[in-house]
């Protein structure tokens, strides 16, 4: 096994520092390609300043109604820019935990006269001595009452039939506070609803609404310009293809709370640089390009940006071997650029391996790529010198490859439920061989 292949294997799968084998990683300076781990670290270092800078930027003030709509439309994953405190206690008044009768606990074991019922949403009159008030769940406890007993303890057993009672017997074991939600028992006035940096979850939005908070300051979304290169994306006729990369990557970015715009540019250096400057403007935090970084004659990203600081760095991965990154001056300011290959499967796999984990963590997105080790269902081959990422499905506890290894098989990717990792050094996969899989849906 060549040194670069060995490094790719141990870097991707290296054990935590407290496990045997930690610290034994070989130097890979002799290898001609980067390992997955090396490139992942480079990308992390490249984007770290823009991620931290975004948190320091002026926040956006958003209505909680709008944030709830965003979450329902799959555009959630917002973080609070500033802490939020409760302007009122939660709950704001003593209220009934259930449908029943509001009484004085001191009247336990007594028969009481039934007075007018208390629905939710009204301020009831004080409870007269020797009386019981029918009360509905969530309704305000009247002054003078300190306990509720359930309607099920009466002969009718439920409302509205129990409203016809003229008197009720109070259970003998009733104690103060029974079935009463006390004022501030969830949160006192001035208490912290959430700290800065907290994710805006459905539960938090509900708590904000309950406390009467109508708007909050949230961290501005990361802004990514997605650039699809290739004259075939802009032409007409039989030589034209659809911009799969732009659409797929924008959808993938939205899943991790990132705002994006896309442009398509031809294989012309002058047109490319002009379109890039216009697209970046004062808007983009990060540029993500696809295509134009391989060894062809019309590699527009490489030709335009490599002289300006883009590092072209092939990685021992299939698909997704061609990679590039760097900080480039665009629209008069330094902007981090991440460049993926142009084949659509290569671009999506590259996003999953190198960018998605960083952006998801930054946006507070829960880890929704669970990892498992499962047996292969059938035999297949893999290039021994590369870490191969195949598409697959898990059925009956085994991994079935979906389609071949070629990087243009986007329909097969769409049909897959898992990414299947075949490690460096593996030339042949046999039935039953353990394979690491990432669930992608």
From TrEMBL:
EC number per UniProt: 2.10.1.1
Pathways involved: Cofactor biosynthesis; molybdopterin biosynthesis
UniProt keyword annotations, A-Z: Magnesium, Metal-binding, Molybdenum, Molybdenum cofactor biosynthesis, Transferase
Cofactor: Mg(2+)
Ranges of residues in domain MoaB/Mog: 225-361
Pfam annotation, one family: MoCF_biosynth
Catalytic activity: adenylyl-molybdopterin + molybdate = Mo-molybdopterin + AMP + H(+)
SUPFAM superfamilies: MoeA C-terminal domain-like (SSF63867), MoeA N-terminal region -like (SSF63882), Molybdenum cofactor biosynthesis proteins (SSF53218)
InterPro entries, sorted: MoaB/Mog-like_dom_sf, MoaB/Mog_dom, MoeA-like, MoeA_C_domain_IV_sf, MoeA_linker/N, MoeA_linker/N_sf
Biological role: Catalyzes the insertion of molybdate into adenylated molybdopterin with the concomitant release of AMP.
Family as reported in the entry's similarity comment: Belongs to the MoeA family.
Protein name: Molybdopterin molybdenumtransferase
Organism: Curtobacterium pusillum
